[in-house]
Amino acid sequence: MQFTTVTIKTRTVKPVEIIDISAEVAAALSASKLDSGQVTIISRHTTAFININEKEEQLLEDMETFLKRLVPKDGNYLHNLNPVDGRDNAHSHLLGLFMNSSETIPFAKGKMLLGEWQSIFLVELDGPRQERSVLVQIAGI
Fold first, then answer.
1. Is 88 in a helix, a strand, or coil?
2. Distance between CA atoms of 137 and 52, rounded to whole angstroms?
3. pLDDT-above-90 percentage for the chain
4. C-alpha span between 117 and 29 (Å, rounded)
5. CATH class, range 2-140
């Protein structure tokens, strides 16, 4: 068994943003030269998450709208009274309760075994941010 670890960095430009990172993860897998195993993708943040879903523009807009409505930014949250980094981002942390910080995807013959409509997304909940970091660990043979 061999392991490869790669970091994907991206910048976000909107308060809530869904960014397709499928190509970057696939490139990391290809560069590993491994045939079969698992790819684990983990967000290294508490207000940005990993999700597997369908990439369709109107659906992505629906997702962003849903997240904004589910936990409004202007709610009366205790965390915002004394935020650690000066950002009123309690809503972002609360939304994170419904999301995954990581996903694991099997691969064979050097290709991820995602479904036809599945893409890998970084879901930004507290943007814009100059840099977001996603760790990709590939384990395989």
1. coil
2. 17
3. 96
4. 19
5. mainly beta
